[in-house]
Write the structure tokens for this entry.
Amino acid sequence: MPMPPKPRSGAPKPDLPKFKPSQLLWMAAGVLLALNLLYQFGAGPTPIPYSQFEQYLAQDKIARITVAGDIIRGAFKQPEADGTTGFTTLRVPSDIAVELAKHGVEFSGAASGSLLGTLLGWVLPPLLFVGVWLVASRYMMGGRGGGGSLFGGGLLSAGRSRAKLVAETDVQTSFEDVAGVDEAKAELHEIVDFLKRPEAFERLGAHIPRGILLIGPPGTGKTLLARAVAGEAGVPFFSTNGAEFVEMFVGVGAARVRDLFEQARKLAPCIIFIDELDALGRTRGASPVGGQDEKEQTLNQLLAEMDGFDRSVAIVVLSATNRPEVLDPALLRAGRFDRQVLVDRPEKKGRAQILKVHLKRLTLADDVDLDAIAALTPGFTGADLANLANEAALRATRRGADAVALEDFAESVDRIVAGLERRSRVLIPRERRIVAYHEMGHALVALAIPGIDPVQKVSIIPRGVAALGYTMQHPTEDRFLLGRNELEARMTVLMGGRAAETLIGSDVSTGAADDLVKATDIARGMVLRFGMDAGLGPVAWDTEQGQFLNEPGSFWRPRRYSEATSREADDAVRGLLNRALERALAILRDNRKLLDTTAEALLTHEVLKGSEIPCPKPEIRAEATVLPDPPDA
């Protein structure tokens, strides 16, 4: 008989089902329960009526019996004619049995409870207790399941790191996938070179930077840059989040930090990426209330690990944050995060490069110009541009086009900036007329003042939550410095809507609420932050709080100037806003007929492009381009 061929050593082994230890535990409990039921209710002597048992007993045929509760098991002295050697029966109370026997009635007992009742009464409570205990052990200590632990990452694995390990061959991102941040890429190229060729840098005594902190607004590509570094270097990549280390029990976060660096040492050279570092590295002792022990111990452990691991071990810690102002100074010092790389919003050229990356998968029309789209998106981040490309493709799909056109991108910019069109919001004729004059007031003032960003579109179609109309302006170039005259011109444009409402004799409405907020912010910045008021002098009376997130500031902070200075600052802000309003009124009075005709055209068409609006008379100012400083108080 031929023997079956033996499998070769290199042949793949058949895949066997893999079970977690917790699943094996439940399977074993089920098998034991089944065996127990088979023992109690399974194969055995055929049950007989209790009356027949009494007959056997009277005939002296029973050798021995075993009583277990209501169950009676016995054996015969001699096998019966059918070969039966034993029996099982259920006991019946003796008083009833005697009466039934007198009348020759066959009777038998029955179990007091069913199989289901037995299971519910004896098996289910222990199972519920064990299940509740397992769930509590998994989640009370922040366990998240998985792994080889019996409790899936619960009590016995609370101190284990939650970082995801990505093999060097699994990271497919490279620097070619990152655009618009050339300076940051150049800075990180050196880290990649060190991980690939450490001996070239150690030749002259240099050592690898211990930490690189990526700082920038949300959506600028900090996480993408970190993945690109891992993909280019070809080393293991630990990815985690600052919130993964924060727990309610003291010591858990510190244990996770230790476990993370212990795993990293075994796989060095490698990269540890900690996203949202501000969740872990906030300044110690900053909160006046208690409850900071866990966070501070976790931060202290991170500080010790970054300053303590061997310099010969090639471990690079990459971190990202958009809140650098709240980080602990000890975390930012040299020797820990040696380098801080700014990943800012891209300029026009960078936006065009990012769009080129995101538009590869789209079918574009011939009129699509990357530079034109980049000019329409000042201040957009990489994430915003990716969203813009997707919105444009969706709009082209909805209108049944064969390719995405430039018009789709322009409309998508309006949707992202101003919100979704709400044509269902129908205004009464009087309010619609006020909105038309309001928006044309903005547009004509912007067209009359030289050097203002050109008007692209004026619309009275409601958008978003509260916008009843909008005037869209796009700068022709990226600006990083603004002079006093430019700031005053922007305030004048913002006041153009209120000025137009005043000229048509309309009651002052709530339509200029957002304009007033923006104009007031500009005026307060000129007076309190930029030192542009002659009366208050070149003093920064206020400081900007949120560097990237533009937060409104803390709940309470001490004021650094007196009541007299505060009153003087309020007067200066009021003076700037009043002059802006008077300036807008003067421009619109000189172009009153044009205001009426363009407002009527806007009421008819609802949307007017900037090229469709006639140019108003240019502003003529006696003081040329410089406004006189207000007199000293």
